[in-house]
Amino acid sequence: MIKESPLKDKVILAVDDEPDVLDTLADLLNMAYVVKITTYEEAVEYLRNFTVDIAILDIAGVKGFELLKLCVAMGKTTVMLTAHAFSVEDLKRSMEMGARAYVPKEKLSEIASFLEDVITFEHQPAWRRLFERLGSHFTASFGRNWQKDEKDFWDIVLSGKVEPREPFVVKRE
Length: 173
Description:
The chain is of the alpha/beta class and about 170 residues long. It has helices spanning about 20-30, 40-50, 65-75, 90-95, 110-120, 125-140, 150-160, and strands spanning about 10-15, 35, 55-60, 75-80, 100-105. It has one domain (about 10-160): Response regulator (Rossmann fold, 3-Layer(aba) Sandwich). It is built from 7 helices and 5 strands, in the order βαβαβαβαβααα.
């Protein structure tokens, strides 16, 4: 028996300045209603007037961090999607600002399973699962010692000692 996706019939706002990425997201997330938007201004207007279950935001082309701030303030579950802004700094910033996941466009084909985790798991377990699934990709992209400069932060993140609320808050002992 095939289990039904928790994304079924969800409204997903996808904001990216690349129409082909939006088309791919719509194809990959065909169990949901995907609203495709290419500009920051249109995204703000949509968020103010309609309900969404998840927002997927490109970081670079559409003022993604500004949209993330708005989405979190509105209580929207938000996932960052990036190619050009794929960096340790933007990963950490996404977490600290309240994103529920940070997905490289290279892993776009797996977006449904990442979003299912975001919907299914609480905030911290979803991040831990993301690191389990993408840890080797992060290491290959950022280098073996990518967590070295912020070792305390990443050790706490991976240990699970975080506040169970958004935005992501690390409990320092």
